[in-house]
Amino acid sequence: MSLARDNFLRHLAQTSESPIGLEIDRAEGSWIYTTDGRRYLDLIAGIGVSALGHGNAAVLSAIAAQARRHLHVMVYGEYIIDVQARLAAYIAELLPAGLGRIYFTNSGAEAIEGALKVARKHTGRAGLIAFDGAYHGDTMAALALMGNPVFRAPFEPLPGPVRHLPYNEERALEAIDQTVAAVVIEPVQAEGGVRIPDRAFMAALRERCDHAGAILIFDEVLTGFGRIGRLFALEHFGVVPDIVVLAKALGGGLPLGAFCGSDELIAKLSHDPPLGHITTFGGHPLSCAAGLASLEAIVNGRWWEAAQRAGEQIRAGVSGFGGSEIVEVRGLGLLIGIEFAEHAIACRFVAETIARGAIVIWGLNADRVVRLAPPLTINATEIEFGIEAMRGALESVREGE
Ligand code: PMP
User: Fold this and answer.
1) Rounded Cα distance, 371 and 189, in Å
2) What does residue 125 show for φ and ψ, rounded to 5 degrees?
3) What range does the domain containing 101 cover?
4) What is the DSSP string of 3-57?
5) Are residues 31 and 71 in the same domain?
């Protein structure tokens, strides 16, 4: 056993009893290279982070330039930090009007927490609504929104009251009433098994929130930045929320989250009391530099269009496998779910695919659904490699039956 593996097993907090355990050497483009000389196609992009693949040259040089200029100074709203202000202005330009005031955080969960605080203070109400299958992060309030009781139960009581409604069921939206501060939704559920709601449902949700005076929060942590074939998923649905939450690809591979809303809403955090929501590192200059370079590259390259084409190629390839093990292949752009008939088969499929050199995972709240979220820059040859790895994995799962 290598020293790194020994240290990992002895001293790092383990998050499951069966880590994938690849020993990483380096990563480049769509590939991760391990210390045993193998390479793996990264079909999950570090869980939806590395939109431009690993080691994008523009992102690396922006990080180096910012590192030479300055690292941490004090980043939450006191000093004027050029790269942070430029990234905020660029995000504001790309989002619909009314979402142009940006609060940077370190992570997706932290941005969800901030958005909930805004909604509570703005409405003076306590109630929160989330959806079955939802995943919004693992801090206490984000966890309270988790649409899977298995993950909530050991940590209760959690902040609330939270009601969970069935996803994509218009009639259930009647529960959004005048006690509700915020409704939080992923425009496409990722950990919930890549579930895509109807446009009519999203329009009804907007209408119901307006009617009840509740703040509508879109969690675009995973769907943002081109992944679903549009720059933001809200464009796909033609619905503008009151707050949009971003993270993952936002930082171009460095930690960065954000919640974005109107001047009026986000101003709630600046008075009564002032400094009522601050963070030591949120909006770190290095993360903002990487994020700005990454976002410029995504926009200038119109990478959401490539994501649409690549997504079609993957869905067509996997749909061609045939057999009864796979129930459905679905997705938007490069957020793809392969639904299996049974969890045990999905599990073996994941292990066999990784053994064949392509990394895939299953959804936390939908363990029969294998999830793909590759870099938007993945090319047709790489996709073919991935499809062949998955085809081989499925055949070996069948032979094992
Ligand atoms: N929302 C969604 C939709 C996510 O997928 C995730 C992370 N998987 C989060 C929120 C939480 O983000 P973070 O891990 O940065 O806290």
Assistant:
1) 11
2) -115, 165
3) 57-301
4) HHHHHHHHHSPPSSSS-----EEEEEBTEEEETTS-EEEETTHHHHT-TT-BT-H
5) no
Nearest to 192 by CA among 330, 354, 42, 52: 330
Q: Are residues 75 and 200 in the same domain?
A: yes
Q: List the CATH number of the domain containing 12.
A: 3.90.1150.10
**Crossing angle of helices 380-400/343-355, nearest 10°?**
130
Report the predicted TM-score, pTM, of the whole model to 2 decimal places.
0.98
Substitution candidate for ligand 1 out of 50, 105, 191, 221 with most atoms within 8 A of CB: 221
| Residues 247 and 325 occupy one common structural domain | no
pLDDT score, position 30: 98
Please tell me the predicted confidence (pLDDT) of residue 76: 87
Average model confidence (pLDDT) for the chain? 97
Let me know whether 218 and 95 are in one domain: yes
Tokens 């269009």 sit on residue: 305
Nearest partner of 374 among 222, 234, 244, 235, judged by Cα: 222
Residue 108 near ligand 1, beta carbon < 6 Å: yes
* For residue 401, pLDDT beyond 90: no
**pLDDT tens, position by position, 4-46:** 999 999 999 999 999 999 999 999 999 999 999 999 999 999 9
Question: Quick one: which atom of ligand 1 is closest to the CA of 189?
Answer: 3
Query: Does residue 207 sit in the same domain as residue 122?
Result: yes
Spatial distance between the Cα atoms of 384 and 200, rounded to a whole number of angstroms: 35
Taking Cα atoms as reference points, which of 314, 366, 309, 304 lies closest to residue 336? 314
Q: Is 99 in the pocket of ligand 1 (CB under 6 A)?
A: no
Residue 256 Cβ contacting ligand 1 at under 6 Å: no
Residues 107 and 207 reside in one and the same domain: yes
| Three-state secondary-structure class, residue 166 | coil
Query: 319-343 burial string, b = 16+ CB within 10 Å, else e?
Result: eebeeebbeebbbbbbbbbbbbeee
